[in-house]
Amino acid sequence: MARGVRDVGPPQKARGLTQRSRVALGVPNASGLAALPGGAFLVVDDDHGIYHADASGKARLAHAKSVRLGDLEGIAFDAARGRVVVVCEEGGAVVALLVKKQRGAFALGAPAKLGRLPAIGRAHNKGWEGIAWVPAGVFGPHETLLAVHEGKPKRLGVFAYPELETRALCELPAAGKKALCDLSDVAFESGTGRGS
Length: 196
What we know:
Elements: E1 5-6, E2 12-14, E3 17-19, E4 22-23, E5 30-35, E6 41-45, E7 49-53, E8 59-64, E9 72-78, E10 83-88, E11 93-102, E12 105-108, E13 112-116, E14 128-134, E15 144-149, E16 155-160, E17 166-171, H1 174-179, E18 188-189, E19 194-195
Antiparallel strand pairs: 1-4, 2-3, 5-6, 6-7, 7-8, 9-10, 10-11, 11-12, 11-13, 14-15, 15-16, 16-17, 18-19
C-alpha cells in the first residue's frame, strides 16, 4: 500500500458513495481543502497557513499564515482565473492567491484581498467557514461563491463572484439545523453540478 494509505476494512456505503481507502493528511489542523488539476490539493490550516498536499497525503507549507491570511477556514479553486480563494473566519475577509506551477509543484502568489463577506453574527469563532467557487452558467450567467456561516446564525451564503455582492443568505430549516450541528465546509462538484 502507498505511504499514508491504510486499509479501512470492507467498503462503507453512504448516500450512494463507496469508501475505498483513507489517506492520512500531513496537515496539523486542516480546515478546508481545494482540489487542483492533476490530483494535488491545497489545504488551509488556521494556525499555519496554506499547505500543498499530494494524493498520498504528504504536505508542505506553501504560504505561511500572515496578517492578510489569518484565521483561515475555507478554500476554493477558481479554475477560470487559476487562483485559490480563501475566507478568514474572523471578519469574513476573502483573499485570492494566484496558483503557479513551478518545477512540478504548485506555488502561490501574493495574497490580494477581494473584499469581505457580511457580518451576520456576533459569536466568537462561529463565523464564515467553508467556501466553494461555482462557474458561470450553473446558477445563471455569472460566477458564484458559496459560503457557510458556522453558527448563530447558521446560513448558506450565495455571493456574486468576484464582486462578493450578496445574492442570498439562506436559513437552514429546523431539521437541517438540528442535523448539522456544525457547519464547517461546503463543496461544489462541477462534473455533476451538485453542492454538499
